[in-house]
Amino acid sequence: MRALNHRALRRSMLALLCLGLLGPLAARAADNTPALTVGLIAASTAENVTEDWKPLIEALARELQTPVKVLASKNYADISGALKDGSVQVAWINNKLAIELVENDQAAVFAQMVRLDGSRGYKSVLFARKGGPIQSLADVITRPGSYSFGAGDKKSTSGYLVPNYYVFAKNKIAPEKHFKQLSHANHMDNFLAVADGRVDLATNNTEELPRYQAEFAEKFARVSVIWESPLIPNDPMVYRKDLPVATQQRIKKFFTAYGRTEAEKATLKRINGLGSFRASSNYQLRPVVDLELFQALTNAMAENAKSPEKLAAVMGALTKRAARLDTVLNATRLDSP
What we know:
This protein has 337 residues and is an alpha/beta fold. The protein is 51% helix and 19% strand. A 6-stranded mixed β-sheet has the order 2-1-3-12-4-13, sandwiched between helices. The relative contact order is 0.14. Residues 1-30 have low confidence and may be disordered.
């Protein structure tokens, strides 16, 4: 009987020992947090952006106890496509890209970038060379065929959507016809093109100005801002809708808590002069959705003015899209801070 008790005791002790050793691993397996890839839009270079985000990405990997990789690209379509096909699960993107992903039920906004000064918005700008022939927006509008223009990526909010509406659509200008030369590039390349005299005019935004002033002081002194847009909501952070809910919650909690230590504050400052990430939702896209739909309506009316049938069809499609987006955004309105 004693032998049986000893064997039972040894089995019990072994079971307890195994439980103690495997407990953390079992808990991690039960949590089942998948490996992640974070997508980042590179306003300068992919290498610079990856380096700026490195401490945050490493902290996220420690928090989730899972590998976290980075995909950084100057090409907006690279990040958007990777989110769509599932090779990227979390991303920093602009409002225009976020609208497309939210509309297709592929991703959701969970946080918004907040600047060091507490601001939650930025402005699109037009740059011209200081002392050059373009001194005001009126110079651009009244002299068709005179200047070269560096536009942003067609999926850029501040580099394309906003100036296309406020500067061109409202003045009944088609950029491809108005300028003697039209090119598309990212923000830094457009800034350098104006500073070096390779284009006369280019788009940019107020988020990037402090970086240029710090890194390219001499070149920055060669350019001037001739136009600023109304305020645009700061860029969102999104995650894919098919991530486990528990993982989504942990990611959101991590980002909205990040920035409490001095090291974390320094990292956020390097990431485009940020102060924090604020909890947000799809509803933050409302102003840009309204802008995009109004521009689409303006373009449709101009392009189909002589064809009532085509205009009616386009208007019907736009009305359906507006209703669909209204439903998607309002569904998260009560969750918006």
